[in-house]
Recover the amino acids of this structure.
């Protein structure tokens, strides 16, 4: 009897997944099409923040060693948005930069991200601060390892 329940559960989950997947936009090759950037742009670990200036700010890692920030009036038009690479990993520090998140805290922009130091095991949390609080696409401070997660590895 237990096996029948598992079979029913698996079939139910599979049929639900199949129905959801069939509703996704597909390009002619049958591959999922990214409705925000298009199919030719890789966007790992995206994060979007809507600011009081009426713009959406989108941050993501690129190439595992830099952070790019996009600025757009429309949530679905980052492919044509103004953008800037705001951070590059320093030599010897970065193995893998992941999941940057842009935030506006106490009147300034900050980007939190995880990065792997080549001399240690695991990823550590870092933060950079915009040098001009009115320009999230401008220059940022040197990375600071977050004390909040000093002993955590990911």
């Amino acid at each position: 009897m237990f096996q029948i329940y598992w079979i029913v559960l698996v079939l139910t989950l599979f049929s639900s997944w199949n129905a959801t997947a069939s509703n996704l936009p597909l390009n002619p090759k049958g591959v999922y099409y990214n409705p925000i950037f298009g199919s030719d742009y890789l966007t790992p670990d995206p994060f979007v923040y809507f600011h009081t200036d009426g713009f959406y700010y989108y941050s993501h890692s690129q190439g595992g060693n830099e952070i790019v920030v996009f600025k757009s009036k429309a949530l679905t038009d980052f492919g044509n948005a103004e953008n800037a690479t705001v951070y590059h990993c320093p030599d010897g520090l970065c193995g893998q930069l992941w999941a940057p998140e842009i935030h506006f805290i106490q009147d300034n922009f900050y980007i939190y991200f995880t990065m792997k130091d080549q001399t240690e095991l695991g990823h550590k949390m870092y933060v950079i601060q915009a040098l001009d609080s009115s320009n999230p696409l401008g220059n940022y401070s040197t990375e600071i390892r977050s004390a909040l997660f000093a002993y955590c590895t990911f």
Notes: The chain has two domains: 1-33, 47-149. Residues 1-22 have pLDDT under 50 and may be disordered.
